[in-house]
Specification:
single chain, alpha+beta, Rubrerythrin, domain 2, elongated
């Protein structure tokens, strides 16, 4: 089994479940994506980040 800490965006509580036990909303992972120096999509993410600023 693979456990990661998750956070509900509605009520701001942390849980290990994919849905919030308090409000039944979906939870999001609080961990950043893994970094790879060989990331072939890095250029596109940088461009998207600069366009949204």
């Amino acid at each position: 089994m693979h456990f990661q800490l998750r956070k509900c965006l509605e009520c701001k509580i942390y849980t290990l479940k994919s849905t919030c036990p308090k409000c039944n909303e979906k939870t999001n992972s609080v961990h950043p994506a893994k970094f790879s120096p060989d990331d072939k999509y890095l250029k596109y993410r940088i461009l998207e980040k600069n366009d949204s600023s």
